[in-house]
């Protein structure tokens, strides 16, 4: 058997000791990272639980507004977020010469929303009178629906949609609209003082059948519970990993 000099024995023992210390330090570092990740995942899970409670409350409030009796238009200075999807009524005269078409994709296929200024005693409010297919784009193709005189409109109050659609900006100069941006439409059409919201008209038929109202889709995505469970699951896995690292016996 070969004889190992004492100095070499001491060097080997020192290296083994340093290796053990490095391993122990690495375990503590990874355990700390796992605990930090668990805390982050836990915070995200709690946030999703809070978001779910907020979303359920919003759904209940919107459902109550949709089925309530129609109320007069709110003041133009009021924040539209406080009244979104509220049933409202308004009386006035349509300014058909300044109507705006915004692109739409509905259950009836692609086409356009017809937004027409309604001149009321309180001021001007844009009314989404409903949907028309592409072959009814021009007012002449739906002349019967260009009603004159005093009309009464009932519908849902909606917030403005600034900025255009997904990856498509509004082009006022070309009269090309991808979203119902009330302020931009009012400027482009010279409407003057206009309510900061628009009204989606209900399904009351228009003469000639166009525009077709009552196509508002009220749907709120509510996947917060799934997200919360996912984050809590990741937090549990991180805690389990930290526990395994901390409980792992030291190697000599």
How is this structure best described in words?
The chain has 252 residues and is α+β, with helices and mostly antiparallel strands. The protein has two domains: 6-60 and 223-247; 86-209, OB fold (Dihydrolipoamide Acetyltransferase, E2P), CATH 2.40.50. The chain is built from three helices and seven strands. It has helices at 6-66, 182-189, 224-247; strands spanning 71-72, 87-94, 100-106, 109-119, 124-133, 150-159, 194-201. The protein has a five-stranded mixed barrel. Helix 1 (6-66) packs antiparallel against helix 3. The mean pLDDT is 86.
Distance between the amino and carboxyl termini: 24 Å
| SS element count, helices | 3
CATH class of the largest domain: Mainly Beta
Report the strand count: 7
Give the mean pLDDT.
86
CATH architecture classification of the largest domain: Beta Barrel
Give the count of structural domains: 2
| SS content category | alpha+beta
Major beta sheet summary: 5 strands, mixed, barrel
Helix content: 25-40%
SSE string, helices as H and strands as E: HEEEEEEHEH
The neighbouring-strand order within the major sheet is 2-4-5-7-6
C-alpha Rg (nearest Å):
32 Å
CATH third-tier fold name of the largest domain: OB fold (Dihydrolipoamide Acetyltransferase, E2P)
Strand content: 15-25%
Low-confidence stretches: none
Shape: elongated
Organism: Sphingomonas agrestis
Membrane topology: Multi-pass membrane protein
Transmembrane segments: 28-47, 225-246
Protein name: SURF1-like protein
